[in-house]
Design a protein that fits this description.
The protein is mainly alpha-helical. It folds into two domains: 67 residues, Fe,Mn superoxide dismutase (SOD) domain (Helix Hairpins); 111 residues, minor pseudopilin epsh fold (3-Layer(bab) Sandwich), CATH 3.55.40.20. It is 49% helix and 10% strand. Strands 2-1-3 form a three-stranded antiparallel β-sheet, sandwiched between helices. Strand 1 and strand 2 form a beta hairpin. Helix 1 runs antiparallel to helix 3. The longest helix is centred in the first third of the chain and has 23 residues. The two termini are 26 Å apart.
Amino acid sequence: MVYTLPKLDYSFDALEPSIDALTMEIHYAKHHQAYIDNLNKALADFPDLAEKTLEELIGDLESVSEKIRAAVRNHGGGHYNHSLFWKVMTADEKLRSYESKNLRIIAEINKVFGDMAKFKEQFSAAAMGRFGSGWAWLVVDVSGQLSVVSTANQDTPLSEGKKPLLGLDVWEHAYYLRYQNHRKDYVDAWWSVVNWAEVEKNFG
């Protein structure tokens, strides 16, 4: 399987002012593309892995040859994480709204975390608490239990048997042009572009 850059559902400037157009363009066209190019390069000499999906590859890294395991973990994870990241953001105000939508994921968040404010507080703390580069996630495990986790670099919760529903990239390349070292400002602004309809879809 040759992986390709997924099409964005919005223009580079569509998430302004939360995420600026130049950051979106560089992040998507340069960083994400580099993960894809390096993943394809790593897999080129391993046709036996071509039948596996990306989720299968990074969800079971032990089945990947040790020669390319680190590359699949890093670049495959980068491709998977970013593909989800673009989808859980939107320029459509209707998709950003979760009030009065009767979404199952919101009901479950309220049940597990108490309310949306407490969930956002815990999620944002995970994003702020990640030292260096990485991600904050809302995930669901095989028993259907929601939790907030954080992963380093381009690691993904799939490798821990958990399904990501919502993810926030806290690598500096995701925000530095606009927010410099003020990660909290980026995290706070990001909530206004979350695509709750997509999170609901991910929840299944």
